Amino acid sequence: MAGVGDIPTILRSLSLHAFDSTVVRCVALLPLTARGTPDYLFASGKANRFNPSGIACVYFSEDEKTARAEYGRRLGPAAPQPLGTFFAAVRLRKVLDLADSKVCAALGLTRREMSVAWPMARKPTRTQQLGVAISQQKVISAIRFPSDAARTAGFSGFNIVIFRDCVHTPDFVKILGPTRKALQKWP
Q1: Residues 149, 66: contact at Cβ < 8 Å?
Q2: Is the pTM for the entire model greater than 0.90?
Q3: Please, which residues have CB within 8 angstroms of residue 33's CB and are 6 or more apart in sequence?
Q4: Which pairing describes strands 17-28 and 142-146: parallel, antiparallel, or unpaired?
Q5: Other beta carbons less than 10 A from residue 178's beta carbon
Q6: Quick count: other Cβ atoms within 10 Å of Cβ 145?
């Protein structure tokens, strides 16, 4: 991958895509409801594939099968517990799409680097470095990427990580509910 200092320059030259879709997330139900009203867009700031600690973002999948694979992989033996599945309408004008081989080539990002075991890394991984660069600018609001959990389960699926501070009107993330009114939204 390009050097950390090169990433902002490379990002300015890449082709970005609009993303207008319904996405899904599966989470353990008890933590989701522990405080009474669910916080569907809770951004823990904990490290994940495309963010080191301290970056506010939320991960969704493009379909329920992928979301369930991600949930099962994340929780492992703890997965058989009450599950909360929820959906969000997402409209973002500028998304970095890592399913685009030209984008990955420009960033020097390989499939192997996208599936590195980030929980055991001693320093931020290349994907986390990319997430830091995205979180520090105001044009790109998300990264779309192939799901490693889906690949491991034998099918193709995609996820999207949305950076809270990079979502600006007219872009939005709206948690869908039983009425037209969003249960929660960014911005």
Answers
A1: yes
A2: yes
A3: 84
A4: unpaired
A5: 6
A6: 23
Query: Can you tell me which residue has the tokens 């055991």?
Result: 120
Tokens of 6: 């090169």
> What residue numbers bound the domain in which 38 lies?
4-186
Q: What is the pLDDT of residues 168-177, one digit of tens each?
A: 999 999 999 9
* Average pLDDT over every residue of 51-56: 95
Left (φ > 0), alpha (ψ -120 to 50) or beta: where does 146 sit? beta
Helix (H) and strand (E) counts in the chain: 7, 7
Q: What is the DSSP string of 123-149?
A: S--HHHHHHHHHHTSSS--EEEEE-HH
Query: With 90 as the cut, is the pLDDT of residue 166 above it?
Result: yes
Neighbouring residues of 115: CB distance < 8 A, sequence distance ≥ 6: 148, 151
Q: How many domains does the chain have?
A: 1
Residues 37-66 have a mean pLDDT of: 95
Rounded to an integer, what distance in angstroms lies between the CA atom of residue 120 and that of residue 22? 32
Q: Give CA–CA dist 173/153, Å, rounded.
A: 28
Q: What share of the chain is helix, strand, coil (3-state, %, to 5)?
A: 35, 30, 40
